[in-house]
Automatic annotation (TrEMBL), chains A, B, C, D:
This is L-ribulose-5-phosphate 4-epimerase. It catalyses: L-ribulose 5-phosphate = D-xylulose 5-phosphate. It comes from the Bacteria. Coiled coil: none annotated. Belongs to the aldolase class II family. AraD/FucA subfamily. One of its GO terms (cellular component) is cytosol. Residues 7-197 form the Class II aldolase/adducin N-terminal domain. Its EC number is 5.1.3.4. One of its GO terms (biological process) is arabinose catabolic process. It comes from Lactobacillus kimbladii. Its cofactor is Zn(2+).
């Protein structure tokens, strides 16, 4: 069942330790088959060095296990919520990568301070609103997805142009058209978080990119007039 | 004698350099057999690349060498004190991992600023009171254990729920149900120390987790209602 | 065509990941044959692990593709402009190395605070003036070269003695007599950016090298009286 | 000639890149045969991956080349001066390791803030006085040794108990009873520089070890009553 997608999600999961995005088992990638309305996700708490494609768990868009012997990632309800509300995404990644976590713990957006950021993210990457006590106790992981979606709506952000968010005091989620692109975006987020930290320490002031520089870098890599890379 | 425990303690010691927790010989792991009241510890000053399981030293709960050709770790009296006063722990680790040392040198607790912390530590990891001149000169390593235990008592902390402490101006000790779990806790401590440093630089203010978020993350991984991982 | 130069430029490109100067495909090296007025550059967006010497693209000094199946680096107009205005350079490197980017995003020069800097750069490495909205929209990559050259002229800098610049809010360009030397200079820039960051945090004040120490270190490695290395 | 010493000095030089203490060729180790009054040093500017034991240069205590086809390290006069004035040392290391350089550029001592420091250095590691313009122009490398020795004399420091110094705006020199011990001390210096940076950022105040804790840690590893390690 979904063998090709499982292979793709497996490879994306295995790229997390290679890109230094995870310690121990702290990260998970999923990928969706939109036609069947099913997604594939890493099992909970399995070390990367022991993970096999057949360990992955298949979930439907109600968040129910459809196939798999293992418990799915405890973050499955967050993935479910995001797939339901961001209909154009094909993959989701959650990590505890340390620079992004440092900003999340500070409840700060990762601002757009350089063109590395603008090449991938068209705006600051938002720190979603913290969950209330009731939201945490009622349905923590589901409401984690909810606060991300709500934050994008409140701030009028396009989830395709800004494919990541921080969950306050927790860590980053990133997404993309495929599981591999979601991982790519998670890595970019970690790199710019590190750079932004140092830039903020140097400047102690806001020095965000002007809109025309954001436009230039974002659109030379994305959309119909992109001219970066091979086509 | 205690061959299985020696193998376990050997593996735990060897994981320290793999997890980037030690420079040169600056770290040691022990593990205890509670039934026999004996623990096994790394010999003093032996490089990891030369360490063999048979080099490990067996110690009783009075801190006396029971078996072994080599001198035990100079921190053996600290391990002895902790095993005597924290009766439910099965392994202890001491390292000089640099981020935890940075906080220890500042005599600061490692505060609970993110959910990575809450997944493993239910409270801030305390910086134990500095030893007095008399305590240092009389029985330095034994009193190092004493100040950790005293700090847990004074602050009313549960050593199972907060399985680590900083010794002021020195470095971290971590423990757990097994030697491997103690090492795991030592690594988590190092990761969150790094993240907390950066968060504190960004915020310059206290932004500790609310109790309900600490509860959620700690108890989704620990205790009877845990739902993280495979069971 | 230009097989030897292609090999040299290929090797220089492949040294970028080895020296930890690039993430993903974010960097490019070119090298020029001054007699033929042609330079060789990395194709756009090709991963280093897949790059082959025959993928490199040959460009003339008008910036036109002379040979090659692939699109050249999107930064080709910047390289073209620099080769036209810095007639003694033989190679150019652009990276998004994180410490240099942190200074570029802060629009700050990388000051000459230690002798590691003075061994390679005779002055501070300048942050070139930011491009205006019109310059970005009209010819972004060409004008990126223009602002570097203009900054060197305005500040009366010698591009051979200070073989690098930061493009504000973007990142570093470095150059040298050969592609390999350009890469060397890019690595030195990254190392001193990291050191300068920490020195500035420690001192919170200007502590630039006195001119006589800059002279000593620069001229013991460069020019007719150099005595460093084998000759 | 001095084959055994050459092998020892070669191994010590090769350990510098393994311990992440050098970039490119920026470091050198020497070792002395006190009976013959000759020392062996790395040649200038030779990459570590090409270095062979027979490339090492033999120097007498006047600083003259006694054997060797290659130019000795440009820092040879500094080594010569130190061997002449610190009669009990057997090896010297110079690196541009980045954390020690960051303190050197700030003209700051590396203070004794934790027991990792006290295990190896009995006092703060001093930043030697900056050279004057005349000293730099007259005999730069020789006077670099002179300012280190003068600083130890002025501050009444014991060069065996504090086996390293920073040269202001330049970088660290470390020494020891053997070339290997000098390298060990250079690595400890780099580790504590990194830790001290972070501790100083956390505390923004002096928090040096009390003398009795320095005594305890220094003397449990050094001198007749040491009890660390195997004997």
């Amino acid at each position: 069942m979904l063998e090709k997608l499982k292979e793709e999600v497996y490879e994306a999961n295995m790229s997390l330790p290679k890109l230094n995005l995870v310690t121990f088992t702290w990260g998970n990638v999923s990928g969706i088959d939109r036609e069947q309305g099913l997604f594939v996700i890493k099992p909970s708490g399995v070390p990367y060095e022991k993970l096999k494609p057949e360990d992955l768990v298949v979930i439907n868009l109600k968040g129910e296990v459809v196939e798999g012997d293992k418990n799915p990632s405890s973050d499955t309800p967050t993935h479910t919520y995001l797939y339901n509300h961001f209909p154009k995404i094909g993959g989701i990644v959650h990590t505890h990568s340390p620079w992004a976590v440092s900003f999340a713990a500070a409840k700060m957006d990762i601002p757009a301070l350089n063109t590395t950021h603008a090449d991938t993210f068209y705006t600051a990457v938002p720190a979603a609103d913290a969950l209330t006590k009731a939201e945490i106790e009622e349905d923590y992981e589901g409401n984690t997805g909810k606060t991300i979606v709500r934050t994008f709506k409140e701030r009028n952000l396009d989830y395709e142009a800004t494919p990541a968010a921080l969950v306050s005091q927790h860590g980053p989620f990133a997404w993309g058209a495929t599981p591999a692109k979601a991982v790519y975006n998670a890595k970019v987020l970690e790199v710019v978080a590190e750079e932004d930290f140092h830039t903020l320490e140097l400047t102690h002031q806001n020095s965000e990119l002007p809109q025309y520089l954001l436009d230039k870098h974002y659109y030379r890599k994305h959309g119909p007039n992109a001219y970066y890379g091979q086509r």
